[in-house]
Automatic annotation (TrEMBL):
Its cofactor is Zn(2+). This is CMP deaminase. The lineage of its organism: Bacteria, Bacillati, Bacillota, Bacilli, Bacillales. One of its GO terms (biological process) is pyrimidine nucleotide metabolic process. GO terms for cellular component: cytoplasm. Belongs to the cytidine and deoxycytidylate deaminase family. The keyword Metal-binding applies. The keyword Cell inner membrane does not apply. Zn(2+) binds at residues 95, 121, 124. Keywords: Hydrolase, Metal-binding, Zinc. It comes from Paenibacillus swuensis.
Amino acid sequence: MTNQHATLPVRKDWDTYFMDIAHMAATRSQCPRRHVGAVLVQGKKLLGTAYNGAPMGVDDCSEAGCMLVEEYEMKLAGDGQEILVKKQRCVRTIHAEQNLLLFTDRSDREGSTVYVTDQPCWTCANLLANSGVSEVVYHRPYMKDSEKVKAMMHQRGIVFRMMEGYKPPIGTEMPLT
């Protein structure tokens, strides 16, 4: 008699399972610049999913093109000198974290965890900090706001961690431009 259980694949841990779902949610995004997905979890219960995109009923970037604005940001160069850097930002897109907060209840967010494919930007981090969540787990860093977001999350007492060594499901990760 053979052991039927010997051929079963290794069961994924909860972090990997929920991050996989965030990456699957990101496949719904029509943004040509970045696909981001987010999920809300309380304990081991999935309470909501979201992705980045245009508001409901509005042409998205794949249909109408990106609605880019130019901004200037002060950066420190390697030699310590400040330099002015020109950036482009799409203002048509609602971020995945923003959509997640719009379509979930505050009572569900209290003490819960958000899994998001990309480290939240400053604006999303501010919203998450006031949302009631106790933990934010992300896969890819977002260098623009990284240090100030980490500092704010620490100050708020929100666990903020990157999943080191995580590999998204095949076919779900969009190359970053």
